[in-house]
Design brief:
Number of helices: 8
Largest sheet: 5 strands, antiparallel
Strand content: 5-15%
Number of strands: 8
Shape: globular
Radius of gyration: 18 Å
Length: 242
């Protein structure tokens, strides 16, 4: 069982909401990344499209091309090789030329993925923790709006129901998150499918409880306004010297 072109066409129609109408999250991370939003910078995040999604997108726009990393960048080469085992590593023309209706599913949902319990229930939005130090949204989950949460849930439920491979991939992603956060001794913050907050307790076998957003950790330069301003100033000095 695998998703087909018709599934992605429906997913695109379903999932159009922005994470927040009050905040342009790219404006917060871009000053720390040479002016580019982290999620739109292939040096930070390489988008991946399944073969049917790629076919749909190539008929819609010329915004996307396959991504071929610098051969000297061993880390990127390895990551792209891993992506290309099942999907297609791709790159767009950049944030300045974004076509919002033609964003890949990975772009629409970043930095989130569907969190599945050990039993396989899709309970809410987890996040890609590798971006904790770079993505402003991860440190400010309170700004994620209910419309985005609903559309995310509806879109990914379609995908999980249609594609066994995607279901298994997110089942493993969720299990990996539990292992890593248990080693850290930290709760896993989740946004539930109705827009509330949950926490997965560490070393509990995946036990979930209701949570307050105040319990969730902030990371990197986003721990405080003072830390953020200091980091922006530091990066401005670095970029000015380049």
């Amino acid at each position: 069982m695998a998703a087909r072109k018709k599934h992605y066409e429906k997913i695109y129609r379903t999932f159009t909401a922005s994470i927040s109408n009050a905040h342009d999250c790219g404006q917060y991370c871009a000053p720390l990344n040479d002016g580019q939003p982290v999620c739109c910078d292939v040096e930070n995040a390489i988008p991946a499209a399944s073969p049917p999604e790629w076919k749909v997108m190539k008929k819609r726009t010329n915004l996307w091309t396959k991504y071929f990393p610098d051969p000297d960048d061993k880390h990127a080469v390895k990551e792209v090789e891993s992506i290309n085992e099942t999907c297609i590593a791709c790159v767009c023309k950049g944030a300045a030329k974004c076509e919002r209706d033609n964003r890949m599913l990975a772009c629409r949902s970043f930095p989130f993925f569907p969190y599945l319990t050990k039993e396989g229930e899709f309970v809410g939005l987890g996040y890609y923790w590798i971006f904790e130090d770079r993505c402003w949204v991860i440190s400010n989950l309170q700004i994620v709006e209910s419309e985005f949460v609903k559309e995310f849930g509806d879109a990914y439920q379609m995908l999980l129901d249609a594609d066994e491979g995607e279901y298994e991939a997110f089942l493993e992603q969720s299990a990996q998150m539990r292992r890593i956060f248990s080693r850290r001794g930290q709760i896993i913050p989740l946004i539930d499918r109705k827009g509330g907050y949950l926490k997965v307790l560490p070393k509990s076998g995946g036990k979930i409880e209701k949570a307050s957003v105040k319990e969730f950790i902030k990371y990197g330069p986003y721990v405080s306004d003072m830390a953020y301003k200091a980091e922006v100033k530091r990066m401005e000095e670095i970029f000015a010297d380049q």
